[in-house]
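Reviewers of the previous submission asked for a worked example of the structure-prediction workflow described in the proposal, so we include one complete record here. The input consisted solely of the amino acid sequence. No template or homolog information was supplied to the procedure at any stage.
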Amino acid sequence: MIKEGDKVLLVDPRGKKYLITVRPREFHTDLGVLKLNELIGKEFGDVIRSHKGAEFRVLRPRINDFIEKMRRGPQIVHPKDAALIVAYAGISPGDFIVEAGVGSGALTLFLANVVGPEGRIVSYEIREDFAKLAWENVRWAGFDDRVTIKLKDIYKGIDERDVDHLVLDLPQPERVLEHALEALKPGGFFVAYTPCMNQVMRLYEKLEEFKDRFSRARTIEVLVREQEVKRECMRPKTTMLAHTGYITFVRKL
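From that input alone, the workflow returned the following structure tokens.
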């Protein structure tokens, strides 16, 4: 049953989505005004009508809805890349993650959803404006019980120990390798998201100095191409979500 203060996703007849917090107030759309107090006591899957009679389906928001609707500043790590990070690093409920380069916090939200309330995420960020924006998004999504954002330069060291995963969205991830050896558990993953191949090459060159301490690196790029499905023809869409970044994985031995 929906209560005051809950987050709900409203979907209008055109498929347009609105992620709102249930309060005793009016919510204005081009299809009419909704009285949000009418949501209290309803179940997810029910319908609410605007004063013009337009029906809005009431759904429970999922993590992809929060990432789509969150406030943005710097470029985010796209969900296609975040999903690969989770899969290839084996990130699981209860894990302890140190993250750096939090930006707007999209990857932070994705990881916080995976580790669950028993997990923990500490995110390093050097820009105060980015840290503030990310924390607003973390609180808005309801993950402030498991996320801490530190205004600190991870190139200068990592305070935490016994970390399961280190996830970096930084220009020079190779500068964190030595600190990672102190912070990560044996078997813990070092994951670097970088947009350019020359950044990947610098990381590989630095890894040569630690080849007895880390597993062999693997780097992956994710390309997503949606299909256009019609009765008379199925074909790839002419546009696709192509290069966003390279993801490099190594594991502490």
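The chain is about 25% helix and 30% strand. We consider this example representative of the routine output the project will generate in years two and three.
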